[in-house]
Amino acid sequence: xxxxxxxxxxxxxxxxxxxxxxxxSVLALHLVSHQFxxxxxxxxxxxxxxxxxxxxxxxxxxxxxxxxxxHKHEWVQLQAQALGIPLVIKYISADPTFEESYRRGIRQxxxxxxxxxxxxxxxxxxxxxxxxxxxxxxxxxxVRPLWKMPRPxxxxxxxxxxxxxxxxxxxxxxxxxxxxxxxxxxxxxEEYLLEQFKWYDENHESLDLAKTVDWAGEFGEMHSMVRDCxxxxxxxxxxxxxTCMTESQFGSYMYLSPGELRIIPKQ
Length: 267
Known about the structure:
Layout lengths: L13 E5 L4 H10 L20 E9 L11 H11 L3 E5 L6 H16 L3 E3 L10 H5 L6 E3 L7 H10 L3 E8 L5 H7 L6 H14 L5 H4 L9 E7 L6 E5 L2 E7 L2 E7 L2 E5 L3
Parallel strand pairs: 1-2, 1-4, 2-3, 4-5
Antiparallel strand pairs: 6-7, 6-10, 8-11, 9-10
Helix pairs in contact: 6-7
């Protein structure tokens, strides 16, 4: 995807997309891509972001063989193939600090790919301003198309753009075991989420999930991976997946072990 050089309009800034393969990073990519400008509306307090030229996807990952249970690297690689956009990995660590580790990676993106913008799918500041600090002194500006967007609008944008995603991980103190089982590995949308929240509250001790859970999972309730979207040239699907449990210092989680990952033609 080459930068726009039409002399009748300004050069479109080259952007890196902070890419997990989840619904938010994929939606952010669509919101800054020129193909979808005429089809998009946002709340009156959330104007459309500037059109950018996404020239590279970046995955910030820990070093070594560790893999995110919610965002398997093999899955992300296949999504990058489906998008036809190069994917680069920037390894992050506490040496010397995580912030400086990010800065090194962002500076390298600017040097190697000429990017001046870093697009993320962040909706809320769950990292106490971490990304704002990470881009400081890099020459790269942070762009957050979903910032503070009402959750129903996020989900309706996903549905209107036909961005199809499955839940890959839930946090069990926020989404109890019975409802998590109904989400893991399933294609979800606003209607499906509300159906499951209602089912749980009607059949268990009510937690009023529709009001206590962030529907976009911004506070760790759930993570996702996209299987299809307008920018994909093909679908990326999982076959023969299984549901697993894990414990960490941060809590208990249910997650999808995707089994076989495959690229298939669009239906």
